[in-house]
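Exam revision sheet. Question 4 asks you to relate a sequence to its structure. Input first:
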Amino acid sequence: MTMDTTLRPALPAIPSRRTIAWLLIGGFLGLMAWEIWARFITPLILGGPLEPAELVISLVRRWTGYELARFPAEVAHYTIGIVGYPVLYYIVSRSLKSWALVLDIGVWALFTLYLAGVAFTGGLMMGAVLFWLFVTVLTATRFINPNSLLADCLSWGSFTWFNALGIMAPLAGLPFLLLEWGGGLSFMSYAGHIIFGFVAALVFEMKAGRQA
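Answer key, structure tokens:
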């Protein structure tokens, strides 16, 4: 049976304790899946782990000049993953109609426009094209996926990747989507964020979303 999540109730003024608990549990489980991907699987492919704490450090350095220590940067990373993104998911998914489709179109369009600009200057590499093709195909599965909940959860994962590398990375003085560094790091981050966002959103929706 298709699970339609397009039409949702208006955002409650105060979420229930059950809603909050499952948001945090979903965020925690999603982050643990991310950690396995980032710290254990990614090094086998790239030779080193994904380092979201370094992005936090770069952001603080760029905007304040302060050199944040590793421990508080890791705390910020865990707080964002367990609390920040789940709360943002709840607000977005409960207050915006067709939110997942909007995010899908936005991420795909901006990624495509950027690569088109790179291609215009003659700097487009085959790895980036294959990456774009993967993102395009995965995004397009929304139109054939019989389960709208699963499609929406994938959309949320894609958005968390774009937020980290398409918004936060440039704000930290790093390349857009980190594609100038090759593409391998960006792709592994994309896969990791897909896993994180998908797990976090799915756990919440399956356990408490229908009552939220």
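Marking note for examiners. Helices lie at 17-46, 52-64, 70-95, 99-120, 126-140, 148-171, 184-207.
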